[in-house]
Amino acid sequence: MTDYFPATYATARQGFISEAEAAGAQITSHAHPLDDPSGEELAIDVARFGSQDAAAVVVIGSGTHGVEGRCGSGLQRIAMREGLFTELPKGVGVILVHGINPFGFAWDRRVDHNNIDVNRNFVDHAGPYPDNDAYEALFDVLNPAELDDSQAWTDAITEYASAEGPIAAYRASVGGQYIHPEGLQYGGAAPTWSNEVLTSVWRQELGKASLAINVDFHTGIGPPGFGSVMQTANVDEDASDLASQWWGGIMRSARPESADPITCGLVGLGFDETVNWAQTVSIVLEFGTRDPLEVLGAIRADNWLEQYGDRRSEKGKEIGEQMRAAFFVDDPVWRDKVTERGLEVMGQAIEGAVGS
Ligand SMILES: [Zn+2]
Questions:
Q1: What CA–CA distance (Å, rounded) separates 125 from 129?
Q2: What is the pLDDT of residue 1?
Q3: For residue 68, how far is its CA from the centre of ligand 1 (angstroms)?
Q4: pLDDT band at 94 (very low <50, low <70, confident <90, very high)
Q5: Range of the domain at 9
Q6: How far is the CA of 221 from the centre of ligand 1 (A)?
Q7: What is the pTM of this model?
């Protein structure tokens, strides 16, 4: 079982496609303009199970934050191997979307080839974009021109949190920003490649659906191995009731009414808006890995590397390893917990689709 979590994007893609073929899925691929580190093609691969005109469809995505795809890809593969999507009841379909941000997956980055956080890109680019005052205040701390081993930057964040409150510190370190293309958490100035491909896949594949469920796998937030179901929806929506029925305890944030850097631009919000002919229910399944400052430290180092360093140098390889370790805990206990919880949440999504 544990071998299904891939070490590289190339093996992930290969494993996904061969598993999907073996499970009888219909596969389509959308090639990315760039290559992976070994010169192989990058792509978003889509595997469809069940009838084409299914009224209830579960979409399960991996690798929105590229490097986090190692976990999500493994879970998609394990679920196929476990037969979760075979013999679906009539009227129910499942679509696996593999490597939503294949460039980041292949190059050990959360962001894409344009330094864009795909999960901050699903906003109305006509504007106005959200302001992120906290991010601006901590810009130099988060985006250093020189990288050393000093932990002064974590002290700066801790001080900021005690002066301005934990929510402001969270907004700085997790919220989106639309001003600095070279900085962390950049949401872009137009729909990025992954956004365009996803949107067209949703339009093409979900035309007949009256219920569309989107499950997006992530890692890096929460206690190690613990899988939290997160939803961005208002409490009075049917989507909130359905999610609570299917998954129980949900970490829910309200839909961003005006521009809010913490909830803006999420893939799930794009899904809800695009698939507006159907009842949509969008969730993130987020698995904890390591201490938040350790995770942020990896992202910070990776962005420094992109702006000032050399990815093929020793330092570059070290930072790549730091990124992989921040978003995937390579130990059997973590893998088992993630596998069990991932299968549970996917199973609950399918049961929800079957029962509705
Ligand atoms: Zn993520």
A1: 7
A2: 46
A3: 6
A4: very high
A5: 2-126+188-289+328-355
A6: 8
A7: 0.97
